[in-house]
Amino acid sequence: MGVYQRAPLAFERGEGARLFTADGEAYLDCLAGIAVNALGHAHPKLVQALKDQAEKLWHVSNIFTIPGQEALARKLTDLTFADVVFFTNSGTEAVECAIKTARKHHWAKGAPERIDIIGFEGSFHGRTIAAVNASGNESYLEGFGPRLPGYLVAPFDDIDALKALMGPTTAAIIIEPVQGEGGARSLSESSLRALRRLCDETGALLIYDEIQCGLSRTGRLFAHEWAEGAAPDIMCVAKALGGGFPVGACLATAEAASGMTPGSHGSTYGGNPMAMAVGLAAVEELAKPELLANVRELAGYFVQQLSGLQQRYPDVVVDIRGKGLLIGIKLATNNRDFMQLARDQKLLIAGGGDNCVRLLPPLTLTLDEAREAVEKLEAACRAARDRAKAAA
Question: Average pLDDT, whole number, for the chain?
Fold first, then answer.
């Protein structure tokens, strides 16, 4: 189906932060499959985990015990607030599970009227019908019918407006601690704590979508960990969880998941042995202190250097946003045109809402590669400025 506006590029192989075309052209990858290849391309530990498992067992069924699920679930619960995990194939499936878990929680507690899921302007939670209804971008609903009942959208980072939407039918709030597609907007630590207090006061569940901002991208294992006392009841993860292999997860406290009994939910492929082997290897690497330190160092470098670009090219760069290595650059020029200018420099970056582009490099990026990325971005800024002058 013609649902993608594809760039005229095809890659044959990847290594670390580089992608290579069939004719040998090398690109610096600061897109990473949209924050998926967090450990870079062809990471040796992930490759070995996949090879080892491929020679043993690919798929059975969730009607049997899958030891890899037990191991990865234990790893995730040991590292987080959560007590239980449901494994999926994608981020949007993790969001579906989160919504069902929240509603079933209230139903099991004798409050079946509590079905409302409140999302936020600019948010993105996936492409299924439930996920687009929970999201704050009307364009993703266009042509798919009206917004479903039980879904509300609040202004971004406006606690008073959120309070006005909440009531006796509110089941949960769902929010990205750092928006990805919505323009790399980061919630403050005080805002995250305010959300936690509001949910505690009202009995609503707090769902974090850390599909893009989680698993070390901000310099902590999860973005909400920057705000002490702001842990969620439910959390959705994916993308980096498999380092490129399709896998997602919905994490929850035992209390939040108390309504999820046998038969409440399921998946054919979710939690398959291949995904679990790669996921376990990925999480072990992503949780390493030295990787987290690298993210924080590079984030500081990028903020400093990109702020310099903003000063030198104010007619191109409007704002620098985000957190860690989820970096947004709001532009005065068209963001799609700018992405092409970056590709002309052999640099791959992502688009984003609010006329932003995003830098989502592998978390294993080196300082030298970060310098190279900034140099290529500056060349793209020069080209954008020159083009704008020529057009004028």
Answer: 97
CA atoms within 13 A on the CB side of 4: 4
Question: What's the token pair of residue 189?
Answer: 């630590």
pTM: 0.97
- Contact assessment for residue 168 and residue 113, using Cβ atoms and an 8 Å cutoff: yes
What contacts 42, CB < 8 A, 6 or more positions away? Answer: 13, 14, 15, 16
What residues have CB less than 8 Å from 364, skipping those under 6 apart? 16, 17, 38, 39, 40, 43, 291, 294
Q: What is the pLDDT of residue 138?
A: 87
Q: Which two tokens stand for residue 87?
A: 């494994």
Active site residue 124: yes
- Tell the residue number behind the tokens 């750092």, with chain if given: 178
Residue 206 DSSP code? E
Are the C-beta atoms of 155 and 120 separated by less than 8 Å? Answer: yes
52 tagged catalytic: no
Q: Residue 129 has which token pair?
A: 């019908």
- How far are the Cα atoms of 124, 166, 196, 209, 226 from residue 159, in angstroms, in the given order? 19, 11, 11, 18, 19
Catalytically annotated residue among 104, 239, 323, 330: 239
Q: Which of 99, 103, 69 is nearest to 86 (CA)?
A: 69
Choosing from 29, 116, 157, 209, the catalytic residue is 209
Which H or E run includes 296? Answer: helix 289-312
Cβ distance 117 to 150 under 8 Å? yes
25: CB partners within 8 A, 6+ apart: 346
What pLDDT, in 10s, does the model give residues 141-153?
999 999 999 999 9
Radius of gyration, CA atoms only, the chain: 21
Active-site choice (81, 86, 120, 124) = 124
A 10 A CB-CB count for 335 gives: 20
d(CA 251, CA 87): 9
Question: What one-character-per-residue DSSP string does 146-162 give?
Answer: SPPTTEEEEPTT-HHHH
User: Which amino acid type is present at position 100?
Assistant: K
pLDDT in tens, 316-353: 999 999 999 999 999 999 999 999 999 999 999 999 99
Is the distance from CB of 137 to CB of 182 less than 8 angstroms?
yes
The distance of Cα 230 from the centroid of its chain, to the nearest Å, equals 18
